[in-house]
Amino acid sequence: MVFLFSSCNGRNTLEEYDADVKVTVADVDRRKSMEEISIQDPENLRGLSTERKEHSYGVAKNGKPHSISVEAQKYFASLGKNAFCYDTVTKEKVLYLTFDCGWENGCTATVLDTLKAKKVPAAFFCTLDHIDSEPDLIRRMINEGHTVGNHSANHADFSKISRTHMASEIIECETRLRDEFGYVPSFFRFPEGAYNENALDLVYSLGYASAFWSCSYADWDVKNTKGADYAFDKVTSRLHPGAVILLHSVSPDNAAALGRIIDYARANGYEFRALTDFPLQ
Length: 281
Description:
Strand content: 5-15%
Structural class: alpha/beta
Number of domains: 1
CATH topology: TIM Barrel
CATH class: Alpha Beta
CATH architecture: Alpha-Beta Barrel
Shape: globular
Largest sheet: 5 strands, parallel
CATH superfamily: Glycoside hydrolase/deacetylase
């Protein structure tokens, strides 16, 4: 059984951060390597379901989450594995902004510039390839107060691989963040939203919360961009209190529209909070 977990303290403002300050994170020695952890129930002898699920959030309308998101959140809460797709605890108009970073398309720096100018916290879920190929961007995310999440080493399908393979994907990514940046991630996002009960349990046993989403749109295909106005309309029409917003950092449309999205949300009474402030249920 894995135990002794640590996490980084979250904030919902970026005003305290300076990009030139050296990164320091307390208690970074959560784990040293795969050899030093004991994978809980590696053969799944408890018989946890391995039926593939593909996370679907539905299209939110009129400031309310889609019923699909509501049912998904009920399912996550019933398992007690710190998995979530939106915030059901607070009735406030809060938003959690997250980005998936599987590769770099020259847009992430612009996203970071906007977040810094608007003083908005975000979470960036990064694969090992992105971490290794863009260390300056990772360092900037951390230094500017954002959350860096674990998106697995190789963007593996967690609904199809063994618990040992899952742990390897997670720990390899985590180890690089800790060794190269002194940073220990606390949130995991399943590649392509593919999971099952067995996978949720394994991720939880390694000390992670699983961050899904309840607001998104088809923004990952860079060969099918439709412009900043399209991105703005899609995102703003789907906002709702407690939404975990998923955007892809490769999208030039997102980078171009982000400032307007933030301004619109705030003008309509929303507050952006750090994912580390999410009230796990």
